[in-house]
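Reposting from the mailing list since nobody answered there.

I have sequence plus structure tokens for a pair of proteins and want to know whether others read the tokens the same way I do. The first protein:
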Amino acid sequence: MDWDKVNEYMARVGRSEHEVLRPWKGPLKTGLDLGTAYVVLCVLDAEDRPVACEKQAASVLRDGVVVDYAGALRIVRGLKEKLERRLGEELASCAIAMPAGTESSVRTHRYVAEGAGLEVTNVLDEPSAANAVYGIRDGAVVDIGGGTTGLAVFRDGKVVRMEDEPTGGVHVTLVLAGNYHVPFEEAERIKQDPARHREIFPVVRPVLEKMASIAGRYINPAETGTIYLCGGTCRLQGIEEVFERVTGVKTVKPEDPFLVTPAGIAKNCLPV
């Protein structure tokens, strides 16, 4: 894997939150990531180059399942409208992705997208979506979302195992809230502050070790050369060392792993 290329690509995705990256070649491709902690809409052009991105903190899902349909619909509509104002162009289609084991909720995710005016043209699993950015043929992608830790093991570019279990960034935030005796929102700000990562690492280490143990149950070190991390929780400094120690497998992550999955979802959109 060319990490320089991955980091450069993700830096452009990050820039697209604040500026529209022109010029682009149409038609536009949209990825909708309905997450436990954030809802993200990521827009790429026909050549998969980042164009624009919007996100909003939300609590409309629990463990990958929509629990507040009206709230999810309202957020997706709002993000779509913001993007369309920025772009001066209507967004017509999108791809969506699901955590493993939540396939029965595809219909609800599809209803949210369609209710916001987006035609769903592709549905995939979250780790495979992330691998659209990484492009690995052999190894394991571990996607740590707000509510779950999901993984996909790849052999010759194909998924040979896929798992997902509860425990994600929300659990890290809850531990911080309890330790510092602060509201959840303040704990989330503490978690997202890189300047405090060294301070909070001993507090959240047990949760990170549990995430790593989830991966370790399904990954054979003798057959898996590298674990590739993604998801907002993976921004925590030192998380890759925890995974490597617990699993016995070399573990790496890009400089900014947060928007890897939304960008990968958008790459899989089939424009209408």
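The second protein, same order (residues first, tokens after):
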Amino acid sequence: MSAIDDLTTEFARLPGVGRKTAQRLTYHLLKQSAEQSRRLAQALITLVETVRPCSRCYNLTEAALCSLCTDARRDPTLVCVVEDASDIASIERAGEFRGRYHVLGGRLSPLDGVGPDDLTIAGLLARVPEDEIQEVIMATNPSLEGEATALYIQRLLAPLGVRVTRIARGLPVGGDLEYADGVTIAQALQARREM
């Protein structure tokens, strides 16, 4: 296998990158200066060698604790549980949440061999008394696995006396009823509120 094929294969392993896009990326890099390609390679090496999970919330960071865990302006008694570190960026974009996070590192999926011990659930349970957490917001994805994960964690948290809530689901702003599936419409009706 040639170096071009090797790199194309590696690019094609990235999410959302098909074989044709991988080839375009490879040939684009070959058109760039050697220095630009070295900078990309060095950035990848630095990423792999320096980024690790936060020791408290499992967000990705270069320090022992991430910037969200060390931010004194955030409410340590309010924790939002997400599946992946990338979910934090989505919530932060809204600019509304002022608590802290906990990254599970995935979701329960017995068919894929992902059980409770494969996630950071034990770390979350340990944080409740340590950080005097009063509310845990479950922000797992609204998939079958995400719902199962949220319910499993809720059952584990119930004896600890912590309030467990779930992010609302329903129709997005600007969405048309015509294109919404039945489950989404049902959830929107259940989560309705006074006007």
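Reply #1 (J.P.):
I read it the same way you do. The mean pLDDT is 91.
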